[in-house]
Design goal:
mainly beta, 6-stranded antiparallel sheet, disordered N terminus, 49% strand, 0% helix
Length: 296
């Protein structure tokens, strides 16, 4: 998947091939200026689109599922980053050296955004969202000592991204290891009381250290609702099956995605954590709080 080119249907172009750095045409006409909306080819298949989403992780993997339910998953944090419904992405900026793709759907929610798993010495230990390093950068022009300190994301030593597989409907299963323990993660569109929802499944192998937690929610209200749901905000609620989540107030570190010149920050926030032991399957359902008339 690291070198995979993807074919998408676009307004104004057919069969254009996109990679994170290159846009190459395969005999199609050049798209007109303006929005370049990425669309799945078939209504019952998913579309995986590796991209840079503005303001998010530079290693985003966006997925459009049937029913106009979409996610972005971060290969930096090995975690779900955003969910939205409606149309998928505008990839017009990839026609140049521009600033990446942007979401064109509605009702976007960022339930997590930090590293998926962490071993906590105590329930009060801060969550570290991203692995960040800093160094001096010499500008292209200017005096010899014209340097500035920049921050950037680095691979976390506890994680290794193993890529993803596609099933016969092109639904991806993401794979990575945490402290050498294999983790698989996949998503399925569904509905709850006729409202769009997405079910997330994690399969975690044996061998996790004690006191390992999964970060499934940040900056939410996390009031407990009926049927085991927790309110994230006015747009979305979530439910964890088989494990009792822990709601806590915490001061998280390195909360901003690892983009150049991003300085590490500490932020006080509310978090929803799931204690994990390994050798288990965890199911999480994200549902929007109300129905919404979407563009057809």
């Amino acid at each position: 998947p690291e070198a995979l080119s993807l074919v998408a249907d676009l307004e104004g172009a057919e069969d254009m091939i996109f990679t994170p750095n290159i846009t190459a045409k395969t005999g199609a006409r050049r798209p007109r200026s303006g929005p370049t909306i990425v669309k799945p080819r078939k209504p019952d298949e998913a579309l995986v689109f590796r991209t840079f989403l503005r303001g998010r992780s530079s290693r985003s993997i966006a997925v459009a599922y049937p029913g106009k339910v979409n996610i972005s998953w971060s290969a930096d944090s090995m975690n779900l980053d955003q969910l939205w419904r409606g149309d998928f992405l505008n990839a017009a900026s990839w026609n140049t050296r521009g600033g990446g793709s942007n979401i064109v759907g509605k009702d976007t929610v960022a339930p997590t955004g930090g590293m998926a798993l962490q071993v906590l010495a105590s329930i009060k230990e801060p969550w570290i969202d991203y692995s960040i390093a800093s160094s001096s950068y010499e500008k292209d022009k200017g005096p010899e000592d014209s340097r500035e300190l920049i921050s950037y994301g680095i691979p976390h030593p506890d994680y290794e991204f193993k890529g993803y597989d596609l099933d016969d409907k092109r639904f991806p299963t993401f794979r990575y290891t945490f402290k050498g323990v294999a983790v698989e993660e996949y998503y399925r569109p569904t509905s709850v009381d006729g409202i769009e929802a997405l079910q997330r499944t994690l399969i975690i192998s044996d061998g996790l250290p004690a006191n390992t937690y999964l970060l499934v929610g940040v900056r939410g209200d996390f009031f407990e609702l009926s049927e085991g749901y927790y309110k994230i905000n006015d747009l979305m609620a979530m439910k964890v099956e088989g494990v009792v989540p822990v709601v806590r107030d915490s001061e998280a570190w390195n909360v901003k995605p690892p983009i150049r010149k991003t300085e590490p920050k500490k932020v006080k926030r509310k978090e929803l954590l799931v204690p994990v032991r390994g050798g288990q399957k965890i199911k999480i359902t994200y549902r929007w709080m109300s129905a919404r008339e979407l563009d057809k």
